Amino acid sequence: METSLSADRCWWCGNDPLYTQYHDEEWGVPLHDDRALFELLLLEGFQAGLSWITVLRKREAFRLAFEGFDPVRLASYGPTDFARLMADAGIVRNRLKIESAQRNAQAFLAVQAEFGSFDRFLWSFVGGATVRDAEGMDRSRVRATSPESDAMSKELLRRGFKFVGSTICYAFMQASGMVDDHVEGCWKYLPR
Asked: pLDDT tens digits, residue range 122-174?
């Protein structure tokens, strides 16, 4: 069975200090703050086609450029804001992804109004608790999607969200602690 390759951590974070800190302090930790969940979902969308470390290195610039990911402010973004963001070398400058932030903010606010919280809505896809593989987890068992991420993606898309395919949703679920995919040998691995 293959386990972590780096300092008793999951193999994917390697030895980059920013990545190892992210692994140790954030990845897989249950997240229940609406604004933080919204930020993470947007960042996962910006990551599409790139490596997560690229977005992680730009996270502070994203927070500045997107005004702390305040969904009320983002929901009212227009052409002037899109032009400002497209000129910001500190973030990923993809017009479709930038413009989707405004649409996603509007969809987020609608979900929040309907369910009382974005947290309640999102965590319903995993029954309100972190999902762990009953047989344990090693590198060969890690997957890119799940039935839960398929369902989340389908519902988010139906509600008007963009850049929320099943693979993005699964990565989001791992990062926000909805799914625990720490591998055996990682110091954060929990026996099943």
From this structure: 999 999 999 987 666 666 667 889 999 999 999 999 999 999 999 999 999 99
Our answer to whether residue 52 is catalytic in this structure is yes
> For the residues of the chain, what is the DSSP string, one character each?
----SBTTB-GGGTT-HHHHHHHHHTTTS----HHHHHHHHHHHHHHTTS-HHHHHHHHHHHHHHTGGG-HHHHHT--HHHHHHHHT-TTS---HHHHHHHHHHHHHHHHHHHHHS-HHHHHHGGGTTS-EE-TT---GGG--S--HHHHHHHHHHHHTT-SS--HHHHHHHHHHTTSEE-PPTTSTT----
Domains and CATH numbers, the chain: 31-180 (1.10.340.30)
Looking at 44, 99, 123, 170, which residue is catalytic? 44
Please pick, among 22, 26, 155, 184, the residue that the annotation labels catalytic.
22
Verify whether residue 60 is a known catalytic residue.
Answer: no
pTM of the model: 0.92
